Amino acid sequence: MPFLTTITVVGLVVLAGLVWLFLRTRQQDLIAGIMAKRKGSSKLVARAEYVEGMQKFPVALSLGETAIYYQSPDLDASCDLKDIEEVEYDDELATGRSVTHGCRALRLRSHGHTFEFILQPADCQQWMAALPRHRADEPAARTA
Questions:
Q1: Which of 82, 100, 117, 136 could bond to 48 as cystine, CB 3.0-4.6 Å?
Q2: Which H or E element spans position 55?
Q3: Helix (H, G, I), strand (E, B) or coil at 140
Q4: pLDDT of residue 4
């Protein structure tokens, strides 16, 4: 009887791992689909992680003519460029946690809210060129 219990537990752990792997892969496929749809109408499209508190959510991040869009199968949001008061690129998140693996944090501030996205190094360089950093007290540096 203990042998059957052990096999059952191992089987359930393996099944849980396979389900998790399937869901993660499926989400990546869905984000790739969103990115493909956005490419035609956006200046720039990249895979990113939206940071909300301690959680990170994979998203398709795109820069349109008038807005920044961040989308996933569970999230469809945007921020108008005219409402963005500050743009920063940093090695740390606003919480002080460092960004790992050479990635950079794109931090947007709008009407007292902070939106943070973690970008891969190559994507970050493109975003810095398309959406340069600026602060609210530097209106001449803004581009929209």
A1: 117
A2: strand 55-63
A3: helix
A4: 82
Rounded to an integer, what distance in angstroms lies between the CA atom of residue 77 and that of residue 43? 17
CA distances from 82 to 40, 75, 87 (A): 22, 22, 12
Which residue type, as a one-letter code, is found at position 142? R
Distance of alpha carbon 95 from alpha carbon 55, whole angstroms? 12
DSSP state of 102: T
Cα distances from 80 to residues 27, 55, 77, 108, 131, in angstroms, run 26, 24, 10, 11, 13
Q: Please give the Cα distance from 60 to 42 (Å, whole number).
A: 12
Residue with the two structure tokens 């990546």: 28
Look at residues 65, 77, 59 and name the one whose alpha carbon lies nearest to residue 117.
59
CB 87 within 8 A of CB 130: no
Contact call for residues 133 and 106 (beta carbons, < 8 A): no
Please give the Cα distance from 89 to 87 (Å, whole number): 7
Q: What are the residues whose beta carbons fall under 8 Å from the beta carbon of 92, sequence distance 6 or more? A: 98, 99, 105
Per-residue pLDDT reduced to its tens digit, 28-83: 677 888 888 988 889 999 999 999 988 999 999 999 999 999 999 888 999 999 99
β-partners of residue 59 are 48
